[in-house]
Amino acid sequence: MYPPDKTARANQSIQEVNHLPGFKYGAYPASGTQTKPIKQIRLPKFMSLEHEREFRKLHHAAALRWLGYNGYNNEGAGGHVTVRDPILHEHFWINPHGKSFKHMKPEDLCLVNDQGEVVEVDGAGGKGNMHTVNPAGFAIHNALHKARPDVLAAVHCHSVPSKAFASIGCELEPISQDACRFYQDHSLYASFGGIVYAHEEGARLAQALGDKKAVILQNHGILTVAKTVDAATFLFGAMDRCIEAQLMADAACAGRGTTTKKIGHEEAEWTRNVYNDEMTYIMFQSW
Q1: Domain ranges (residues) in the chain
Q2: Domain named Class II aldolase/adducin N-terminal: which ranges (predicted)?
Q3: Most C-beta atoms within 10 A of its C-beta, which of 30, 119, 126, 165?
Q4: CA-to-CA distance for 232 and 280, rounded, in angstroms?
């Protein structure tokens, strides 16, 4: 257990370790060998905004495929992933209505403006797909992208664990190292106003999210956000599995007449701070 009074020093250590040249989590040179710079995955840098658009669309499609092949597209059209356009900042890319996540390609993605209109744009990365989009997806994500200029990507799907957990009306608890990733960095939208078609409901969801990385939508599911679609997708999958683990742990404890053991505040906070944006982006690359 990490000493509670050492949290400030530990947080400083995280920053120092992250700046070590050639550092990579879990990679160490063999004893007695000559060390060389370790090749490491980094957040990408782009030569042009057109190149960045092309990259975002490619990873957007890859994220949708990952979600599809992991069972997050089994509720028909009930799921959507958006990525802010790097050139037209008030526009975002979204998956077309009714197309399986498993077969998504960059050219299938639709570009939508803040009025909900699907638009066509030329340039690197291809044209936008002139196809209908999920109106609920637009209402949720448009409000979110407006409220959070720092958010470049958002993921929302209807998984069985998240739907079950959302009906309880509580937040995720720090019962594991992985769950600490969301410790005091997710919120609960304790209301259900039906399918989100209205701008007002979308705005309330965005307000509930606040400045956090995830929100549990009561009687609905979960939504995650990040500065890359890779990170937002990883967070969605990670949160869904943490929710499943908590449901299993709570059920086991109920049968034994006990409760789960929670990680302390200082330790949970320190662990959460290890999972920065770059590390979360890197985590998705292994999937």
Answers
A1: 49-285
A2: 58-247
A3: 165
A4: 8
Query: Taking 50 as the threshold, does the pLDDT of residue 22 lie above it?
Result: no
DSSP 3-state of 120:
coil
**49-285: CATH superfamily:** Class II aldolase/adducin N-terminal domain (3.40.225.10)
Measured from the Cβ of residue 41, the count of other Cβ atoms closer than 10 Å reads 14
Spatial distance between the Cα atoms of 147 and 247, rounded to a whole number of angstroms = 32
Q: What is the pTM of this model?
A: 0.84
- Give the contacts of 123 (CB within 8 A, at least 6 positions apart): 50, 53, 87
Contact 260, 170 (CB under 8 A): no
**Strands 214-217 and 186-189: what pairing?**
parallel
Cα separation, 183 vs 7, in Å, equals 15
Under 8 Å between Cβ of 198 and 139? yes
Q: Give the pLDDT mean for 74-94.
A: 90
